[in-house]
Amino acid sequence: MNRIDIVYGGKPYSLGGRSIESIQVEIDGAIAAGLPYWLRVNSGEGRFEDAYLLIAPGIGVAMVNVKPSGVDDDHEGDELYSQDSL
Asked: In the prediction, which pLDDT does 77 show?
C-alpha cells in the first residue's frame, strides 16, 4: 500500500491508499471553489488518529510520495534535482 506523507504547519501527517495526484485534484477543486476545505489525514504513528488540515489559499502543504522498501523507480530526471543544480 502506498502512503503519502504530508507536512503541515511543520508537523508530519500521512494518508494511506491514495496517490498524490488524487489528493492534488481534491485540493485543487477545493481551492477553485473558493471555500475552506478540511482534509482528513492520519496524525498518529503506529495507530490511526484522525486529524483535519485546513486547506485554503496561502496555507502551505507539502506532500511526499513514500515508496515501500525495495521499490526503486528509474530516477529519470533526477539530475534536475541534484545538489549541483541548486
From this structure: 42
